[in-house]
Amino acid sequence: MTATPASSAAAPPVVDRETWLRERDELLVREKAHTREGDAIAAARRQLPMTLMPTVTVWGPGGDTPLVEVFEGRRMLIAYFHMWHDGKSYEHQCEGCTFSTCHMQMLDYLHARDVTYAVFCEGPYDESAPFAEFMGYRFPWYSAKDSDPALADGRDFGFIACYLRDGDKVYETYWTTGRGVEALMTTYHALDLTVYGRQENWENSPEGWPRVTGHPWRLNGRPTAQWSRPGVAPR
What we know:
This protein is of the alpha+beta class. The protein is 27% helix and 22% strand. 19% of the residues are buried.
């Protein structure tokens, strides 16, 4: 993946500050409306009914682990279901799941709200746990490879599921996939604030704006986040 350099012409028009402030304020009206609609959707999400989970387990550092124990004593759990390609080297593992999960390194604020974050990997634990260590992940990592099918419930890995614990009972409260997983991707949210955005081909940007060539989540054959890990040869 590389970004096409921007030419001197590939930039917004230059205007005086008064004009710029006026147009920025016009956009702010739309942004505030978007925020209020997002708040309304979040309120509806919080009030969704929930469904009782059967007794299921995942495999972790302590062996077979009941889902209720993944909460680590907290009331809520966010689980990311990570794709895995059995027997493949680290550079051939899922770049999208890497992009999602590599952002989740600071867990203090989730814990302060009684939320645990964990990953349920599609692959076997003995093969995938060293990958999590290589990536420097601080969150709990489990394998769902041999879990009861009720855990994934027919969904393809690459999704987020949210749970609520009431004593020993666990309820699923929400799930999302596709672009819903962008909730984890702070890089995308930050890039959306910049003049060139994500630089991906689907974006509605003017002619001449820089664009990523190749896979947007890979760089020189690896998921981009792997290049900063110890032991990886320099680019």
